[in-house]
Amino acid sequence: MQETIGLTRQQIAQLLASDLPDGAIVNLGIGMPTLVGDHLPPDKDILLHSENGILGMGAAASGQYVDTDLINASRQPVTLREGASITEHTISFAMMRGGHLDYAVLGAFQVSERGDLANWKTDAKDAIPAVGGAMDLAVGARQVWVMMEHRGRDGSPKLVKQCSYPLTGKEVVARIYTDLAVIDVTPQGLNVHAMHFGIDEAFLRSATEARLHFSAPRRIVLDAVGTPRYA
Fold first, then answer.
1. Is the model's pTM score more than 0.85?
2. Smallest Cα–Cα separation from 95: which of 155, 49, 58, 146?
3. Is 51 a catalytic residue?
């Protein structure tokens, strides 16, 4: 049996951040996506938006830089870039709904092979449904990138043929970043853009319910300090 190997959440965030183009305006959703703000390449000018009313959000705050009145959508303390602006919710949501965001990076419970997104409600008895601004982002951003583990805690696949959880948006996801692979949603289905160096196609198929297409995918490797890159 092949050993399960995958990226950490921080490494997924690093890889995704490296793929964001210079000049992009990007919303970071709650949960795992907030990690992306700590790994933006210094040679790129990327403007971060948070749905609670920040445009020009910086990395997470710590120590003496923590201001409890300055938080992201996950209620975590953050910093501001020079020139940042603070707005109330109607202005922030107008940015989200009006097509002004180049990318929205969202977490997910499930993504279907057509790019359907389910990320606000599960059937768990102790789970509290919380859609927040996810539906606005899913349909308002020019591209939606999902960031998640490839499988749930019980080992069940999160890339599925059809979502069993209530949908956030239909056919809205463009790219998916997991601990095992980077996968593009295309008109032909899910195409593996890159996969972790420690797994093969058979293993990735076994971890995925949705059908996968492989068109010479790149390999995700780690450098000497554990930073992921494409090879």
1. yes
2. 49
3. yes
